[in-house]
Fold these 2 entries.
Entry 1:
Amino acid sequence: MKKIIFTLVIATIMIGCTDLEEEPIGVLAPESFFNTTDDLQAAVNGSYSYIASEEFWGRKLTLSLLLRGDMVTIGDMTTSGRRIEVDEFRLNGDNGMITNFWPRSYAIIGSANYAIEGAASVQASNEVKNAIVAQARFVRAFTYYHLVRTFGEIPYIDFAVREAETLSSISKTPVDEIYQNIIEDLEYAKTWLPDQQPFRSMPSKGTAASYLASVHLTIGNWQDAYDEATFVINNKGRFGYDLEADFQDLFDATKADGLVEHIFAIDFKGADATSNISRDYLASVTGMRGPANEGWSVAVPTVAVFDSFDDSDYRKAVSFDTEAVFDGVLVPWQDFGTANRGVSRPHIAKYYRFPGTAGNNNRDSDHNYGAMRYAEVLLIAAEASNELSGPTGEAVDYVNQIRARARNAAGTMNSFPEDINAGLSKDAFRDVILEERRIELAFEFKRWYDIKRLNLGMEVFGPTSLEPQPNFDATRDYLFPLPNDELGRNPNLLPQNPGY
């Protein structure tokens, strides 16, 4: 538990995001430090900072989710072995991806816990204090939602740690209990958060409801998922949500601030980043290599994945890079592999194409990542509605709204994708929704969670799939292994996850 102890007891709050700057402060005892609501907000901003860090959203967690799914695999095989192990289902508890994003996750949670407990020491109205605590409880729920889906049973820590010894005997918490705690935090957040915030990197009432819809969908509470998703949809004007007119704008860092489709955004600082806090490497690891070492060709779609998108779908053009200029020459994807250690496959364009004020290799991008988009809420509502009542006109319309947006190719209206027609069976419409999620949310760190929640591994990693992975074992690989160093320091966290 050394890493958990360090990050919870010595939880240093760093600069938040571009629009939420706070001076670094140390947090050791909530009752002695928190005197004003500004102090509470600073602690919450520290949690946002840790989310927008290289060890979490900037590479370690998100790259792991990309590689674990069936939409990308390793391009440059000389890359770090820890990445290849994640991709090829050859993980163990010493893997460097896990041992980075695990402690960062608990740093996020630790800062949130200090803010929650610190509120008791602050003299202010409940309305003001509770709105800040609601941010912290949302952040805690957001982080545990990733952890529980990734690892299963984990230590659930919902208190500010004052002494390291407190954690020396902590045990894992059952999955059902973790989900219940996540739901309670999100319900609190939904109650106390405002309808809108100054920035989409701060959660609002609609953000909490959207994540409630996602959580309930994940655990099969169809009615609750439907109720929360339609609450957001029916109040989209109140919350300021809608689909962006041009799908490309969602992945252009120069247009990132204020996108109406973003329900919760992870805001990176661009080339101004001076440490792993607010440092983003996703553009680098997904961009194509070339003579000038432009990108790293780490997470690259297979040709089969590229071919699975219809050429008439504008989202294909937005999602993939199929040509690039190397040394002044326009090179098609079929020739990418001739340059340096590149690989001759189309590459992910969502992060590499328009990274904003990025540095060398497009590292330190200025992206605001849409961790939750309004389009996903529409798809959640459609899926939950279908499970409850089949393909109603309402559910079909939710999907058709997304397809209508996809027909707008930068102002040129296309005829593809066509609207879904009535008359589909419940099973057929379920397949349509899942495929729409695969296309619409491609490379946005959702696909692995869909594979896991729907138990699709044997299908999507089989020998005739888009990404065959012969090592996939359904009895083992729906969970990552727990970090071995944590297990070694605290035997109460044993046993290791099955199969590791």
Note: Residues 269-366 form one domain.
Entry 2:
Amino acid sequence: MRALKFWGGSAAFLAIALSMASEGAGDDFTRFRGGDATGVAADHPELPTQWDTETNVAWVADVPGQGWGSPVIVGERVFVSAVVAEEANTPPQGGLYLGEGVRDPAAGIHHWMVTCFDLGSGKELWKREAHAGRPLVPRHPKSSYAAETPVTDGERLFVLFGDLGLYCYNLEGELLWSRNIEPKQTNMDYGAAASPVVHGDQVFVVYDNKEASWIAAFDTQTGEQRWRTERDETMSWATPLVWQNELRTEIVVPGKNANRSYSLNGKELWSFDGDMSILVIPSPFAAHGMCYLSSGYVGDSHRPTFAIRPGASGEIDTSDGFTSNPYIEWYQPRASPYNTTQIVDGDYLYTVYDQGFMTCHNALTGEEVYGKQRFSPKGSFTSSPWAYGGKVFCLSEQGLTYVIQAGPDFKVLNTNPLDELCIATPSVSDGRLLIRTLTKVYCISEASE
């Protein structure tokens, strides 16, 4: 529905037809932060505001191994990726890590798995092993070899294990094709993490590393590589955004050296050096006709957020400051998170900081609405916030979800515990909230009562 506004009034009949098609597609959660990448879900009377390990729980499914991708939802199916190790290794832990990763590849044979559950009951429908073997690269101390969220075009499921390969299944679990990815050394041996995205008949993958970074497109039906563009980047893990604005469709990827946009055939459209923080993790998203970019490594003094207008070409000139260019609508120098991605709900942009704070800015102007407010009880955050029903939800690594009243005043309405490590960003579909913990997927809905 959001994309329809870009067609204009002269194509009213087409817009109505597309609207009907979109509504018929349901409320699928097709990629990281949902189909439109905003993290904002449509209101539904059965979406919960209170829960714990028993209250409003429709079902709980055990997921062996480790994985921090969000559950992907298509119709009545839920897809989850994970990696199961045959030997004990360093377990993932919450908190900030300001140093090296786990410097050696994990020990023992690992199994890269994809599992499908029934959305209504939580029953396992099928499980497939994409690969078995020993890991070839290290990883971040609290990450997993299945850090990426899968993506779907409604007919096929694309599962990316970033330092290993891209695997395509149909919804019944048949492997249609796979493409190996040559593993590279990543900064501080943190490993890959950017999730894939789909548009039309192409699936896009970004792999920034210390040896040979790239963005590439693969044919959704055959897996053939359509194009590959080299990237002069080494320290970014953001999931790209397919930005369908009123002028064109483009692929936006932030980076330490430059924020860039690419055409659907891999040609660079625009770029600018945003003096981003040394590690670029938050993913871009669109709202109010603008694209929001951010990076906020805690050790850097400059942690910028940008709101970008569509239509730029070439290098965006910022020689007179970041607000001097008409394609940068606004800029805040110290308003970005480290790991989480920001969210815009209505006219407000909310930022959840890793160490347990929240701020709010006007999404249209960048003006501060309220400064840092501390969550109580305190927590640390990697999962990105989501919103529905006039509320913003923030899931801590400790498994506690803070329910925040949306609007100009910071108010915690209630807290909902699951009492297990939580890194993955939750998913929302058709009155159901799916939260992935270290070992489980919870389906939470007021209909369960």
Note: The domain at 2-8+27-347 is CATH 2.40.128.630 (Lipocalin).
